[in-house]
Design goal:
By secondary structure, this protein is mostly helical. The protein contains 3 helices and 4 strands, in the order H-E-E-H-E-E-H. The radius of gyration is 58 Å and the shape is rod-shaped. 0% of the residues are buried. This is tRNA (Guanine-N1)-methyltransferase.
């Protein structure tokens, strides 16, 4: 876009330089006509006598040339005005294009997460933050699991020991009950006899 504007400005200035050179060439034309008139005039007592028709022709040529220069100046001014307008339009287009480019770059650099736009850096920080929180949560749950698993193993071990003690106690109690039952039976048998 900048190359287009640069090329346009270069073209405008080169056209103005060429036009200025044409104007200089035509101004030499009037000077040549004056020189011709002076050279073709006669001398009389130290004065130059100029032919009236040649003087009128010079006046008409000068008026015509001045009018041509005015017309050329108006054309150049209108050309300059149109070129200035075109430059202004190009600058406006450039500003719009730069604004669009800025907006597109912002959209390209932004990532929408949960409906909210984030820059890539913020998004990466958020994602790594979430990953970090999840890793901490995983480590916490692993710790809790190992702690609970150790507690459960200890409780099972105690339960097994308690069951063994209870089985041993029950066996002793059963044995004692059987012994007492036999002793009672023996006493009953002795009493009957």
């Amino acid at each position: 876009m900048r190359t287009i504007i640069f090329s346009s400005l270069l073209l405008i200035f080169s056209v103005n330089v060429l036009t200025a050179q044409d104007s200089l060439a035509t101004s030499n034309f009037i000077e040549d006509e004056f020189d011709n008139l002076i050279e073709s005039s006669n001398n009389y007592q130290g004065y130059k006598v100029v032919d009236y028709d040649a003087l009128i022709e010079l006046r008409d040529n000068t008026k015509r040339h001045v009018q041509d220069l005015k017309n050329e100046l108006q054309e150049e001014q209108s050309t300059i005005a149109s070129q200035n307008e075109e430059i202004e339009n190009l600058e406006n287009q450039l500003a719009e294009t730069q604004e669009d480019l800025k907006r597109v770059n912002e959209e390209k650099d932004a990532i929408k997460f949960l409906g909210m736009p984030f820059s890539k850096g913020s998004y990466m920080a958020l994602m790594w933050g979430i990953v970090g929180v999840l890793i901490l949560a995983l480590l916490f749950f692993i710790y809790k699991f190992k702690n609970s698993n150790a507690t459960t193993k200890e409780a099972r071990h105690r339960l097994n020991e308690t069951e063994k003690e209870f089985d041993a106690y029950r066996a002793k109690a059963l044995e004692k009950e059987q012994r007492l039952g036999r002793m009672l039976q023996d006493e009953k048998n002795k009493a009957k006899e």
